[in-house]
Amino acid sequence: MKCELSSSCHTFVAVEKFPTSQQLICDMFKLRRLTTLASTIKYIFLVPVFLFSTASFAQDGKAIFTANCASCHALDKKLTGPALRGVEDRWSGDRARIHAWVHNPPGFMKTDPYTESLHKEYGIVMTAFPTLADKDIDAILDYVKSAPLPGGGPKDINPVEEDNSDMTLLFGVITLILAIVAFTLLYVNANLKKMADDKEGMPAVEPIAFWRNKTYITVFTLVIFLIGGYLITEGAVGLGRQQKYEPKQPIFFSHKVHPGVNQINCQYCHIGVYQGKQATIPSVNICMNCHMAINEYKGTTKLITAEGREVNGTAEIQKLYKYAGYEPGKPWDASKAQPIEWVRIHNLPDHVYFNHAQHVNAGKVQCQTCHGEVTKYNEMFQFAPLSMGWCLNCHRTTKVQFDNNGFYSMYEKYKEDIKNHRMDSVVVKDIGGAECQKCHY
Q: In sequence order, what are the residues at sequence separation of 6 or more whose Cβ sits closer than 8 angstroms to the Cβ of residue 74?
């Protein structure tokens, strides 16, 4: 027994016997093994965290690009603005100047000849993004620099598709690794508790089978719930969306040949785009206006399907004649014509109102904004997602064209504000383009 003097009284405390050298060595080896295991677990945990962080940063650059830039810019194609791949080379790698340009294009352009030349080439000034932080712009630039080049196949005509890498597999692997780490930590914790109990002389408790262990059951249930919820939500969000939808049509119609090579104006066939809600599909007599004289295909442009199969253009013209009830060399009786059963590609939900004339005529929106570079399509497909988020993002960034536009004559206040430099521009959102009742009423 040893007497220890405290500040208030004498207390006798039983002091344990010092451990032997053999016990010390044994304890040291145990501690070393546990330390090594803990370090290993730490690094195992850090690897997926690093991977997840890297993937998140890359995904952030893509997400910011899609949300703010994709409506006017593509990576490798000219749209409303120039292609963005190689943008840093054109700016001599000076990101500070790019930051200043993105934050205030009208002000920056006054002292910069390069951006002034862009204005003259494209006829519009880029929308200002003062809310984008420098790190967000850097993330976009990093994404543009690292995005894969287009593959060059028939499907690579979509300028927004070059970056649609699917991160689901990577996230699934990271989740699996984290689950393994979690169960390993639980196992280590149980062993440490058992060792502590043995050290204190407490009786060992028989371990519970994993299928009866409440902790394991809870974790497994949560994992199933989260995975199921994610898959259900993803499926529900994607209901009715059909981006890249490319059905087989009764007649192979090449936009690459008609509006591309032959430069036929879109409105010649889609006559309702300036006056009505629907763009309308051309009737047989519109096709026959040209093909009564053109009865064979002599173009040099190859007609290629999405599968890579070459099409006989003359045979497709003969299909048109069958629908029209026309025999070359004889007078055509239009009353014998049958409508061509074209398969509709672009569909919006019934509760959504969309008017082509409002966008094309009043809004001065180019066809390529929603339909992509149609003049390069062999077969037509749905270019844009046509989701509500995609539409709203366009309304938040697209400037209202007031000049020589009688439709917007009632917005004199905005015109005066722009004229007096109280504001640089007005976007569609400012005149009600983000109000629910504009599209749902």
A: 83, 84, 159, 160, 162
CB 98 within 8 A of CB 141: yes
Rounded to whole angstroms, the Cα distance separating 174 from 47 reads: 9
Q: Which amino acid is at 181?
A: V
CB neighbours of 149 closer than 8 A, spacing ≥ 6?
76, 162
Q: In this structure, how many other beta carbons lie within 10 angstroms of the beta carbon of residue 11?
A: 9
Q: In which element (H, E) is residue 106 found?
A: helix 105-109
Could you tell me where in the chain the CATH 1.10.760.10 domains are found? 69-163
**Would you mind telling me the total number of residues written for the chain in this entry?**
441
CB 102 within 8 A of CB 131: no
How many whole angstroms separate alpha carbon 99 and alpha carbon 93?
Answer: 12
Return the bridge partners of 310, or none.
Answer: 304
Sign of CA dihedral 62, 424, 115, 80: positive
Tokens of 139: 């993330």
One-letter amino acid at 394 equals: C
List pLDDT tens digits, range 282-294: 899 999 999 999 9
Q: How do residues 390-428 score in pLDDT, each as one tens digit?
A: 999 999 989 888 888 888 888 888 888 888 888 888 899
Q: Residue 11: phi, psi to the nearest 5?
A: -130, 135
40: Cβ contacts below 8 Å, ≥ 6 apart: none
Q: Which two tokens stand for residue 251?
A: 């007649």
Burial of 400 (0-12, 13-18, 19+ CB in 10 A): buried
**Contact 259/268 with Cβ under 8 angstroms?**
no
Q: What share of the chain is helix, strand, coil (3-state, %, to 5)?
A: 50, 5, 45
Q: Spell 88-101 as b/e; 16+ CB within 10 A means b.
A: beebeeeeeebbbb
Cα→Cα distances 106→119, 125, 215, 438, Å: 10, 7, 60, 30
First to last CA, the chain: 89
The CATH class of the 69-163 domain is mainly alpha
Place of tokens 């899609």: 66
How many Å apart are CA 326 and CA 50, to the nearest integer?
67
Contacts of 325 (CB under 8 A, 6+ apart): 332, 333, 336, 337, 338
What H or E segment, with its residue span, contains residue 2? strand 2-5
pLDDT tens for 85-139 read 988 888 888 899 999 989 888 888 888 888 888 877 776 778 888 888 888 899 8
